[in-house]
Write a structure and sequence with these properties.
The complex is a heterodimer of chains A (about 375) and B (about 140).
Chain A (H helix, E strand, L loop, with lengths): L6 E5 L2 E2 L4 E2 L1 E7 L2 E8 L7 H5 L4 H9 L6 H16 L5 H29 L4 H21 L8 E2 L2 E2 L7 H24 L2 H7 L7 H6 L5 H4 L7 H4 L20 H25 L19 E9 L2 E9 L7 E5 L1 H6 L2 H5 L7 H8 L3 H5 L1
Antiparallel strand pairs in A: 1-4, 2-3, 4-5, 6-7, 8-9, 9-10
Helix pairs in contact in A: 2-3, 3-4, 4-5, 4-11, 4-14, 5-6, 6-11
Chain B lengths: L1 H14 L23 E3 L9 H5 L5 E7 L8 E9 L8 H5 L5 E3 L14 E2 L1 H6 L11
Antiparallel strand pairs in B: 1-4, 2-3, 3-5
The chains are: A alpha+beta (about 375), B alpha+beta (about 140).
Chain lengths: ~375, ~140
């Protein structure tokens, strides 16, 4: 007589496939997951609490460290919130620079996801190709902002630096290069039978589930919900660009893959148009008082980050520090569906499902 | 099988492409001018206005000043200036607020030490850190 019993298996917190310090406690019966309990907080730094004692400009470097794969979007959400409170007009040139760097950041972020996801499920070479192209983007962003990951580039009222000489041309040249590489990725990965067999139908959920867990970004759009804040609630100058919102209907890991790959293409379209429309000259910083003091009151703004809907709530008492600051961090919300997805799955699907959600632990833990 | 063959063709095509890696640290890594590296400090330019200390988001800068040795001159001169690189995040805000460009960024980024205490850099060390200075510091 064979005796079987349930076992507790601890995955992480130091595990390469969890993309950071993230732990899952699995109750397994043989190879089948009975229950999964995510444990988060290993990277919690209390950004929101720290921010209460800082001036608004001082908070910007802290936002870099939340979603460190797309720090430009995080810079933007804070500046956008403060600008909304102060009803500030942003110079056109600054808006264009912001959109270009944010979309480049989106491409870089999706490339990291693409590379590491393939690495997680056992393919080494796409990772190297993806990081080659990401390096090109990071070089562009270093040239304009001075940082490789923690850009600290945006300021309330504009951006810190103007584009250096020839930078816009470099971005212009990058777009066709990236398109060519993207076609290569499709040759390498998208048509690959092993890859398709591995992730098709894995970690599927319905539109209702996605909405009730308040998922956003590609995790929502893979179920057929066409919701992208750049289109639905245009902020900055996104209403000036012609782009599509890629939507897939299967809700599985393959749909999320297709969605993100299509988003890279759309981001390239936006960069291309922004570079074409880029104003020849003009200020890149609005007239901002030396000490930034938004009027007393509250505001909530939200934008589309590579991972979903990122929001920023500020309660101000008219002082130079916020009274309360809260970020809606999309990775944290997207992660909540994990226990539901893992229940009843084979343990070999664990990494394929977790990787498909695309979390950044700096953002989950805040 | 077609997908696998296509993938293999892409791999083979990339084999003839130029190498993207470089031989760091034997070959030094050049950074663009705006790169935010370890600060250089000019004691003679500092007017002890304390703005860098006030703006630093991690409170890693500490300074003291003393009265000008020439009694006819007003103002203060710098006495000690320390940056704790255990917590400095090289965010560039200190150079942004400095009215006299007494503190500027360099393109140096190698800061590995054997003990944590050595990451506490004083005025002399910051003054001697004068290679690869950033050319454009004020917008």
């Amino acid at each position: 007589m064979i005796r079987t019993e349930e076992m507790l298996l601890n995955v992480g917190p130091q595990h390469p496939s969890t993309h950071g310090v993230f732990r899952i406690v699995l109750k397994i019966d043989g190879e089948i997951i009975k229950e999964a309990t995510p444990v988060i907080g290993y990277l919690h730094r209390g950004t929101e609490k720290i921010a209460e004692n800082l001036q608004y400009t001082q908070i910007i470097p802290y936002t870099d460290r939340m979603d460190y794969l797309a720090a430009m979007t995080n810079n933007y959400i804070l500046c956008h919130a403060v600008e909304t409170m102060m009803a500030m007009e942003i110079p056109e040139r600054a808006d264009y620079l912001r959109v270009i760097v944010m979309e480049l950041g989106r491409i870089a972020s999706h490339l990291v996801w693409f590379g590491t996801y393939l690495l997680d499920i056992g393919a080494m070479s796409p990772f190297l190709y993806a990081f080659r192209e990401r390096e090109a983007i990071i070089n562009l962003l270093t040239e304009i902002s001075g940082g490789r990951l923690t850009f600290n580039y945006m300021r309330v009222g504009g951006v810190k630096w103007d584009a250096p000489d020839g930078w816009i041309d470099k971005v212009r040249e990058f777009v066709p290069y990236m398109r060519e590489q993207l076609a290569g990725y499709h040759d390498l990965v998208t048509g690959n039978e092993i890859f398709m067999a591995r992730i098709k139908g894995v970690g599927a959920y319905s539109k209702e589930d996605a909405l009730s867990y308040s998922l956003s970004g590609a995790n929502l759009r893979c179920t057929g919900v066409k919701w992208d804040l750049r289109k639905n609630e245009p902020y900055s100058i996104y209403d000036r660009f012609n782009f599509d919102v890629p939507v897939f209907h299967e809700g599985d890991a393959l749909a999320r893959y297709n969605c993100r790959m299509a988003e890279i293409e759309e981001a390239l379209k936006i960069v291309e148009q922004a570079v074409e429309q880029f104003p020849e000259e003009g200020p890149f910083m609005a007239k901002v008082p030396r000490i930034i003091k938004p009027p007393a009151g509250e505001t909530y703004v939200r934008i589309e980050s590579p991972r979903g809907e990122i929001g920023c709530y500020i309660a101000s008492k008219g002082k130079k520090e916020p009274y309360r600051l809260k970020f809606r961090r999309p990775s944290f919300y997207n992660l909540q569906i994990l226990p539901k997805l893992l229940e009843g799955e084979n343990i070999s699907n664990l990494i394929a499902i977790l990787g498909g959600i695309d979390i950044v632990l700096g953002e989950v833990d805040g | 099988m077609r997908g696998l063959a296509k993938g293999l063709a892409y791999t083979l095509k990339n084999m003839t492409k130029e190498k993207v890696t470089y031989n760091y640290p034997d070959q030094p890594l050049e950074m663009p001018d705006r790169f935010r590296g370890i600060q250089k400090f000019y004691p003679e330019k500092c007017i002890v206005c304390n703005q860098c200390v006030a703006i630093c988001p991690t409170d890693c800068i500490s300074l003291t000043g003393k009265a000008h040795p020439d009694p006819n001159k007003k103002g203060k001169i710098i006495e000690t200036y320390d940056i704790n690189f255990e917590i400095c995040i090289l965010c560039d805000l200190c150079t942004e607020v400095c009215p006299t460009e007494a503190i500027i960024m360099t393109n140096n980024f190698e800061l590995a030490e054997f003990s944590r205490d050595e990451l506490f850099k004083n005025l002399e060390w910051l003054d001697e850190n004068d290679t690869n200075l950033r050319k454009e510091n004020k917008v």
